[in-house]
Amino acid sequence: MTSARPAPSFAAADATSKPLHILKPEGLADFLASSPHAGWLRAAGFEAGLGELVLLPGEDGIAGAVAGLGTEKARRRTRFGLARAFAALPEGDWHLEGPLSPAEADEAALAALLFAYRFDRYRPGKAAKAPARIKAPIGVDAARIAAMAAGEMLTRDLINTPAQDMGPAELEAAARSLAAAHGARIEVTTGEALLTQNLPMIHAVGRASPRAPRLIDLHWGNTGPRLTLVGKGVCFDTGGLDIKPSAGMLLMKKDMGGAATVLGLAQMIMTLNLPLQLRVLIPAVENVISGNALMPKDILTSRKGLTVEVNNTDAEGRLVLADALTLASEGGCDVLISMATLTGAARVAVGPDLAPYYTDDESMAQAVEAGAKAGFDPIWRMPFHEAYDPVIEPGIADLDNSPSFGFAGSITAALFLRRFADHPRYMHFDIYGHCPADAPARPKGGAGQGARALLGALPAILEL
Predict the structure, then answer these.
(1) Active site residue 318
(2) Active-site residue 244, yes or no?
């Protein structure tokens, strides 16, 4: 499993630090009028563009720095743009000066922790420049921001770890480590026991792998409303007998991104000691090929009793989620949420930066939209469009895991899952879990999506 990284933290409140002046273009003239470094900044061509940085000279070296916050349009186009300036700062302690709105201060604080993320497990000999340490801006809930950053880093580490070191057993170990750190309880059903415990579709998808499939079941908290998170944990997806082309497998180590994201969100919840009862269910499998692999046109009987015709073995994520969602519904909860790297159709619809989500509950939708804005975690609501329900009904069985409809793949997958969630307050996220290119505070690689939006939504959704 991944080794635990130190928890991200801000520079100590009492540490000696240098000022980092944050400036917007419209405030630059006033700053220059009163600054002894006006000539220096003009010579450097500083215009307060988003993430622009100029170091200020002093008698003993560097006296401070100025960083640009950019225009409102620039900030809308690039989240965490200040991270570019933070990354260019010399090592040492810094504090932010300048007028920031509460939202700008929160974004700057989160950027101040996330910009330092590096996944260097496989490059131990490559020394990275020690990052600058930045104090939390005044008025920011530093503990909450640090918890969000730590949860995001856990998610990134899990997704970035290649399948050779992140199979079902290693994903279980990561969940056990998280449970131990927060006093949570955990139970795991493995291999043939999945059949005796009536989790047949999890077993069917994972049985071809020598790394046994399993269901991870974590519980935390004894009082308060009940929240259940279900995360897709397909640790690698070859596509099964409907094998993917080689190019289609290159990112399949991230097919457990839903599991990684719910574990990151669980860490945030437990670290902040939110007054709720949390359950996390992760069906952890590998979808590989062997003599006993799931075959096209097989018909599976799910935990719920619904039969499913397997028209594509590469549409396996919804199969393992279905049994887990049924179990979650049987166990009772106030809110049920699933997260999965489920469909390429979602990426075609909204691209890699937006996390599509589905719910029939208007109050949940309103809460998560507000949480997304506050957490700088963009999402987009998609419909449970019931006119497409007949598409997932093949006739020979109750349901089809991969309809030949050819359209609306994310919607039909969500409708499939809803058949098993059986809960009025259900929400499903069809995430990508990957940043395709380096961006401020978001390096290329694994990425959490939707977790901060949900964290911000929980007080309203659960009436905490």
Answers:
(1) yes
(2) yes
